Amino acid sequence: MTLNLHKVLFEKFGYASFRAGQQEIIESILNKEDVVAILPTGMGKSLCYQLPGYILPSCVIIISPLLSLMQDQVEQLKKLGEKRVVAFNSFLTPNEKQTLLQQLERYKFIFLSPEMLMQEQVKIKLQSMPISLIVADEAHCISQWGYDFRPDYLRLGEWLSHISRPPILALTATATKHVIEDISTHLTMQQPTLHIQSLDRPNIHYAAVEIDSQENKFERILKQIESFSGPGIIYTQSRRKADVYAQKLSDKGFRIASYHAGMDQIDRMFVQQQFLNNEIDWVCATNAFGMGVHKDDIRQVIHDHIPSSVANYAQEVGRAGRDGSDSLAILFYTKDDEDLSIFITTNDFPDESHIRLFDESIKKGLNPNQLISQGLLTETHVRILTFWLARKKINETIEILQQLKQQKVEQIFQMKDILWNSLCIRQQIVEFFGQKLNSKPLNCCSKCGLNIEELIDSSKEHVRELKLQSWEKRISLLFKGIE
């Protein structure tokens, strides 16, 4: 099998060898095992289902959380010459969806969101098709998003029970023991094989900097990006602040755009493509941005707040330095940020009054959309309550949602403690996910001692080396094509 895998790897992807963990994951899939694979960002998770797709007889279903992620994966496969790939999503017109459903079995790689997967026509079609592999990409979203604003993640098990079940691969860069259990349960995995690589990225260097007031944060961010170049991502908590930062920095001559869920889908896709194509150097975003953005040379990830969880923080800073070059994750915070993060994280979570209002309305036969139009409930409230009240009694639902809300608060406390105590940031993040840090790089973090000037100098040299390697690879592939 090993020789065959290396042959497919070279013929389809142009690589001579696997990255750490990839071959073992692929072998488990081909042995028809359910697999939970945890690989750090930039370590080639996509190849773990793309390569088996060329060996397995039928299609691969990829459950993906974001339109941007789907589109990026589709484009990557098309660049490799694969034509049998499609994203079945809301970008398609009703007529396009109908046409695609009629010929879905022609495709090898089919990308869908959990919500699209739950649509009746799609479920019926997939039940009639042979499927060789099901992939949950960014599988931590099952646990992170499923319990509240995207409950269709928790319905995946119901769908899986109605199909001829192939092996399942769950892919993510970060997962605690609890999240792994959530993934296994909701994907109805059968004694899954775990493949876990260290999530530590030695080339990412951490800094946590306390600021005396909210008003001074922008000035510190401005100084940061004036002193040390991008490309980079600035993460903030509000859509308004993302727009304000982007406008102020644009006025000062930086090539930057904002990105958040309040923007039209097309506009968001446009900003992402500008960033990937080096037409802009910076994106100022809420946490809506970043997943699936395969940009290798992100040099800085800047936060102006306490993230909502250690897992979210690890995902966001992990987008830096995919090329292996030194990169900086710097976070500016004030003592007031804890309360602000708790408010923002829990503000759209239904409380007991929302739950009782929704329950009474349903019993009266009212459409929940009326409550949204009247401003009494949000769309998120309705999604959450539709899921839970269909499965639990009202008092059980109240208790469950109160517990989930408290968990969100505790996750912010965990993140705050990592920033505020005197212990190594890197070590705390690694240990949070149940792993052990074997060694620390030079300039590890602001708690251990950090010389940012040294990082920038070494980064420039490493980038020059990578560009040379890139040209060598291109020449090699060119001669391969001639042969």
TrEMBL record:
GO biological process terms, semicolon-separated: DNA recombination; DNA repair
Annotated signal peptide: none
Gene3D superfamilies: P-loop containing nucleotide triphosphate hydrolases (3.40.50.300)
GO terms for cellular component: bacterial nucleoid; cytoplasm; replisome
Protein name: ATP-dependent DNA helicase RecQ
GO molecular function, one term: 3'-5' DNA helicase activity
Domain of life: Bacteria
A Pfam family annotated for this UniProt entry: Helicase_C
Residue ranges of every copy of the Helicase C-terminal domain listed in the record: 217-366
This protein's record includes keyword Electron transport: no
Organism: Paenisporosarcina antarctica
Domain Helicase ATP-binding as annotated: residue spans: 26-193
Keywords, alphabetical: ATP-binding, Helicase, Hydrolase, Nucleotide-binding
SUPFAM superfamilies attached to this UniProt entry: P-loop containing nucleoside triphosphate hydrolases
